[in-house]
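ERR on first pass: missing label on line 2. Operator R.T. fixed the label and resubmitted. Corrected input:
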Amino acid sequence: MHHCPRIPCAAALTLAGAAALAQGTAYVTSEKDDALTLIDTATLAVKGTLATCKRARHVQLTPDGKIMVACTDSHVADVIDPASGKSLRRIPMGEEPEAFDLSPDGKTIYVSNEDEGATSFIDATSGKKLKSVKVGKEPEGVKVSADGKTLYVTSEVASMVHVIDTASAKIVKNVKVGKRPRRMAITPDGKELWVTNELDASVTIVSTTNHGVVGTIKFEVKGARAEDISPVGIQMTRDGKRAFVALGKANHVAFVDVAARKVTDLVLVGKRAWNVTLDKAEARLWVVNGLSDDVTVVDVAGAKAIKSIPVGRVPYGVVIVE
Amino acid sequence: MRLLRFVSAALTVLAALQSVHAAPAVTLKATLLRPGDDSRLERTRLERAYLGHPGGAAGDGIQVAIDESQFELEAAGVAVELANQPVASLEAARAAAVAAEKAGAAVLLTDLSAAWTLAVTDAVKLPVLNLGEAADSLRQQDCRARLYHLIPSERMRSDALAQTLIGRKWTKLLLLVGPSPQDQLRAAAAQASIKRYGLQVVASKPFKLSADPRERDLANPLLLTAGSAYDAVWVVDSDGEFARSLPYRTVLPRPVVGDAGLVALAWHAQFERFGAPQVVRRFAKAHQRPMTAHDWAAWMGGKALVTVATAAPKGPAAAWALALAKTPLDGSKGTNLSFRPWDGQLRQTLLLTDGQGVISQAPIEGLLHRTNVLDTLGADEPEKLCKVAR
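pass 2 clean. output:
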């Protein structure tokens, strides 16, 4: 028996049999349901749930279009075929996996193991742990460079970004950033790494060439104090002109002009805005709200929230299959 | 020979290049002073596990903080070394503090009574981190410029409770106060919080642990809680035994708060947010017991050492002392924590717990403050209760 969040279990059962259910679907992970909530991206209505592993957190699409979900309490990643809605396999991810990234060829999974204070390299096919790199405690965000040669991992306790050479599995540099660094984005030209700092109300910009800090963007929200602004999720547009940063407890998402390093818009969303994902057209931004158990869909052009949709308990991340 | 020396030097350089971490050139030495014979840690007391009481030695939490920070300490090229010194008397505490300072300690940490803490602080010129003494006197009339407090003060705890009660609109209180001098002091703190947040005491009664029929008015929960209408019973019981037996034994079906029922604490092992479960798990793994509020304060003492060591990895001690006053700390409570410049108290979120889980947090949502909402807990700057300039 798995728990079905918010909607009757019967709906989930009928879904599993339906064909082509993936067309225009957002898949939302939540930490307390062991299930994904599925939202129709056209109607913005919940259309069902899919059972998955325990305490589903980070979710990404693999290069071949599958949904990969890291489950902290099951110590695995669940690989789900969006076309059939079926779990294809489960990959061991080491102890307490939280966030991960895939090598550009999809063959290696890089995962942060939060209790161990390690980053593991996992063979995506065999599930074998290839290498493990000791990093600062409570590692969180994991990001691979476009050429696959460099891996960036944040440590929340050490307040650092560890720069790891993927070939040798060695740390080449520890970059001191803001307090409690969380997630990262790399500019499409590959030159800058943007790191959100949860307890610093900021993004640190790190040069990928010399790993020096080249800039900091401090966030301000009218009516909120600096200590209430806790940035976590970040995503950039494909052209690298804009970045979107979820501001956590400030309940807003910030639109940032990447070249100018300036905030252009602030959009009110749900409570503790956590992770963000753009749809393919980059017309809508999906914001996952950890403390209001919903996701807010934001119209990017108008910088306005369209709708908030109730999902599972303690939602974490979202991917969109179009 | 010369060639050999050259090769060996080259190898050393190579080794240095290969390692990202430089060998620590500087060590921050700290000494923990704790009671040698600590009645709080007697087995029978630990087994009771009263909320708000220590669950074990202060050294446990400090060590977890230092161990978990090895990565950033090594990366910064600095080490933190802790000496753990039991002391048997006030005089011994003072002597141990002087000896530690002479031996090169840069920071002292204490888990001592108020009087011993003061004696230690006045005997040295070092910053002192008070890990376990919640007495308001150390933040008020007896405050010291170099004395920092990691554990929340009694006022902070009673303010957290008063906020929670006013948030629930449970405004009428029956106050039950224990017989010890500490109970009297803590009852005064409770009264100050009750006044600050506009609650009302409908009756205040002393209680006593007793089975003597002649003292039943003082000891029987039913008799003690009869005779007035109230929304909650606030019990002040520093010992813990009476308070534990009070919930569900009141005449009226009303909640008990204070030292049983709903209790305001610095920490609880069931806290689920802000990475707290990872901290609790690291602590439990190292010491095979749940992490209590006292453990959190000790852990924060260790975090403070690590934070100042990495902020000024080359030292000297003066730089560490400066960093201590200025650098915010991360206590896995979701917000930056820093020492109040007016009394050295670490401002922090408090957790309201019934012992089984975390019911809510304080400051309560919606409460406003002109500078920092965390300063709605404990003595605020305009009260000017600490006269010492920092």
